[in-house]
Amino acid sequence: MTEILIPVVVSLVIAWFVALQVVHAWSTGRWATTDRHRLVVDAVDSIVILALVRALASPVGVWSWVWVLAVAITGFGLAGAALRWRSLPWHAPKPKRSLDEHGATIETPVEPRTRRQQITAGMYAAVGIAIVALCW
After folding, report:
1. Which pTM does this prediction carry?
2. What DSSP string describes 13-58?
């Protein structure tokens, strides 16, 4: 039972991270990313998850093809991120939502904490690259 359960759970985790990356990179609606920071975080998440799975739980048989498919889908997501890269700012202001006296939603832009997010993004990328380098 566990020999089938573990690959299924691992595949679901891979699918979640890869799908999130592709949806954020290619979507133009509600799920579209509004800044480069999110594209970098999604790409690093997907690549690190794939590298860790390959290094720690080397898929065999049919599951190796699932991994190859996930790598191809991640590449598709990275292509979408590359196409959107120039049109996005590093950090988009997130709207603060509140209700007015009639119960309607009001969105007011809030200036992002750009310096902190830049440091976080740099650390995130460095840790991701280190993990990929160590696991490869």
Report:
1. 0.66
2. HHHHHHHHHHHHHH--STT---SHHHHHHHHHHHHHHHHHHHHHS-
